[in-house]
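Design request, tokens follow.
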């Protein structure tokens, strides 16, 4: 999946999760020159409550480091905002996790992302469904 399609998918996921509110909107920023902001969730119709997104589609062995978190925080501050969500397909280093806590950035790693996509059925579809049975001991 190309990075821009992945950004769209992540904005769609947060929308389905309810972050855009009842009458808010969600959008993906332009492909380049986005100043480190990949998506914006307006949580209300006037856009007074915003959540900014940074999305990194990394290989499992390429972890997100503290400088990427601090750079994202700087981008958020330039927008006069106080919160953000950083999503990656990989993992975060301890330095990144610590910085995110201090900077009010919510982190979503690859494992959590997979679970959220399955839970909210975004970007996935059921291929097969299995049912297993056991004998009801109360009936015998």
């Amino acid at each position: 999946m190309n990075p821009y399609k992945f950004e769209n998918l992540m904005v769609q996921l947060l929308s389905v999760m309810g972050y855009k509110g009842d009458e808010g909107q969600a959008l993906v920023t332009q492909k380049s020159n986005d100043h480190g902001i990949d998506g914006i969730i307006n949580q209300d119709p006037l856009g007074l409550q915003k959540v900014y997104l940074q999305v990194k589609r990394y290989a499992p062995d390429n972890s997100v480091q503290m400088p990427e978190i601090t750079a994202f925080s700087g981008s958020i501050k330039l927008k006069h905002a106080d919160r953000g969500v950083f999503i990656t397909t990989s993992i975060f280093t301890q330095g990144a996790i610590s910085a995110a806590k201090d900077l009010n950035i919510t982190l979503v790693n690859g494992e959590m992302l997979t679970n959220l996509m399955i839970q909210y059925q975004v970007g996935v579809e059921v291929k097969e469904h299995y049912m297993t049975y056991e004998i009801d001991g109360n009936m015998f």
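Comment from the thread starter after seeing the answer: thanks! DSSP finds four helices and five strands in the chain.
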